[in-house]
C-alpha cells in the first residue's frame, strides 16, 4: 500500500510541476478537463494517497542490517 501511495503522490507532484512550469494539467487534459468525473476521481485518489503517505513519515524506520 505504501508503494502504491508513493507512486500516486509522485504522479500528482509531476502533474503539479507541469501546471506550474507549463500551465498544462496533464490529468485534466487526458481525461476530459478538471471538471470531468474521471478526472475528479483521479484527483481524489491522489489526494487520499497523499494523506496515506503522511503515515509513512511516522513509521518506525528499521535500520539496514550490517553485511559484514
Question: SS-based structural class?
Answer: mainly alpha
How much strand content do the residues show? under 5%
Number of helices: 3
Give a short account of the largest sheet.
none
Oligomer: single chain
Give a structural overview.
This protein has 68 residues and is mainly alpha-helical. The protein has helices at 2-22, 26-30, 37-58. The mean pLDDT is 90.
Topology, please?
Elements: H1 2-22, H2 26-30, H3 37-58
List keywords for this structure.
elongated, 68 residues, mainly alpha
Briefly summarize what is shown.
The chain has 68 residues and is mainly α. The protein has helices spanning 2-22, 26-30, 37-58.
